[in-house]
Amino acid sequence: MASTKKPALKAIVLAAGVGSRIRPLTDDCPKSLLTVAGMSILERMIDNIQACGINEIIFVLGYLDRQIEDFVRTTFPDLDSHFILNRKFRETNTGYSLMLTEAAVGGESFVKFDADVVFDIEILRQLIASPFDNCLCIDRDIQLDAEEVKVLRGDGNRVLQASKTVDPTKAAGESIGIEKLNSVAAKLLFKELQLMMQETENHQAYYEAAYERLIEKETPFHTVDITGLDWTEIDTHEDFHAANQMFARQ
Question: 122 in helix, strand or coil?
Answer without folding.
Answer: helix
